[in-house]
Amino acid sequence: MATAKKAAPKKAAPKKAAAKKPARKPNAAFMAPLTPGDKLAAVIGNKPAPRTEIVKKMWDYIKKNNLQDKKNKRMINADAKLKPLFGKDQVSMFDLAKIVNDNIKK
């Protein structure tokens, strides 16, 4: 009587390493230094900076001075420096990019 051989468990094929994508270079348009206008310079300073840095400095100012609305965090309350920039008492955080764009020297 022949003994049945147990089939060896199949090994999973080794997974191929995922091809790494080359690191993305930042878009030069985002990194170009922009000169803030007078109203914007009152908040972030007057040194030229990339658009990303300008928005970051705006958020630093907003958080430092506790200007986000308590009930709706998407709204930003204007203080004495931001009121001329915003043109009203409160703006949405989604309006910040437009406000920055409108207040840079071209």
Task: Output the keywords.
5 helices; MDM2; about 110 residues; alpha+beta
3D architecture notes:
- By secondary structure, this protein is α+β, with helices and mostly antiparallel strands.
- The chain has a domain of about 50 residues: SWIB/MDM2 domain (MDM2, Orthogonal Bundle), CATH 1.10.245.
- The protein is built from five helices and four strands.
- Helix 3 packs across helix 5.
| The CATH C-level class name of the domain at 51-101 | Mainly Alpha
**CATH architectural designation of the domain at 51-101:** Orthogonal Bundle
Large-scale geometry: elongated
Strand order of the largest sheet: 1-4
The CATH topology of the domain at 51-101 is given as MDM2
The average pLDDT is 85
End-to-end distance: 93 Å
- What's the CATH H-level homologous superfamily of the domain at 51-101? SWIB/MDM2 domain
Low-pLDDT runs of 5+ residues are none
Question: What is the percentage of strand-forming residues?
Answer: 5-15%
Computed CA radius of gyration, to the nearest angstrom: 27 Å
Helix content: 25-40%
Count the E strands: 4
